[in-house]
């Protein structure tokens, strides 16, 4: 059975994402007494990602009503909570590459917060399925249900890190750790986690290569020359249509003054995006900028 504190953590973090409360604030405006409640609807009716969030909130409300009416027991209630969380995260309208060429704005603020939920749900599933050893399950179960979301996140991180000390070959969970640390702003630790994943067999995964390149460039004031660009090229060798890698490749080309190559990468990226999407608009702006001012 999934440990109750981990289920609570997952749902609490999703609630945080719904209201855009900073992840490590230490309290959750939607959670009281270990249960996640619904709050005011702050979603955008025209945003597909927000539509998924509204559906999720309605499902959570209906589920709580079923529990309160005695039609489902607490164990089944927590299991369904976790299933709803995983369903929300699996929706295709959620951005897959939050570091791709998009500006600020509410949708990408949500995407950044959701990024931490993916590894969190992964860790909860890991414990639930027993994929790890008994020590991992036992340490997760010791977390106190009255802990704040920030405290539960930190405790879960410590659990995962302890597991990786015992099983350093577990490349999938190095990726989980790296993505979580990235979302928490712990760049250097995230880079170390990604390097460990690459050492242990993930060096042929374009998503990891591109994310690692992006994070590495960010730690160098955005400079892609050198290792970040080599990682991007490797990602595109494996998947020529990888969106984040195409964006980074264009940026790297522009950094070294090769506007023609930048254009080639960004035009390919543009062809992969929905024509009316905000992302496509951003790319078209970049392509127009390559043409220079028109007099």
Automatic annotation (TrEMBL):
<dbReference type="GO" id="GO:0030313">
    <property type="term" value="C:cell envelope"/>
</dbReference>
<feature type="repeat" description="TPR">
    <location>
        <begin position="171"/>
        <end position="204"/>
    </location>
</feature>
<dbReference type="Pfam" id="PF23914">
    <property type="entry name" value="TPR_CcmH_CycH"/>
</dbReference>
<feature type="domain" description="Cytochrome c-type biogenesis protein H TPR">
    <location>
        <begin position="151"/>
        <end position="278"/>
    </location>
</feature>
<protein>
    <submittedName>
        <fullName>Tetratricopeptide TPR_2 repeat protein</fullName>
    </submittedName>
</protein>
<dbReference type="InterPro" id="IPR011990">
    <property type="entry name" value="TPR-like_helical_dom_sf"/>
</dbReference>
<keyword id="KW-0201">Cytochrome c-type biogenesis</keyword>
<dbReference type="InterPro" id="IPR019734">
    <property type="entry name" value="TPR_rpt"/>
</dbReference>
<dbReference type="GO" id="GO:0005886">
    <property type="term" value="C:plasma membrane"/>
</dbReference>
<dbReference type="InterPro" id="IPR051263">
    <property type="entry name" value="C-type_cytochrome_biogenesis"/>
</dbReference>
<dbReference type="InterPro" id="IPR017560">
    <property type="entry name" value="Cyt_c_biogenesis_CcmI"/>
</dbReference>
<dbReference type="GO" id="GO:0017004">
    <property type="term" value="P:cytochrome complex assembly"/>
</dbReference>
<dbReference type="InterPro" id="IPR056413">
    <property type="entry name" value="TPR_CcmH_CycH"/>
</dbReference>
<keyword id="KW-0677">Repeat</keyword>
<keyword id="KW-0802">TPR repeat</keyword>
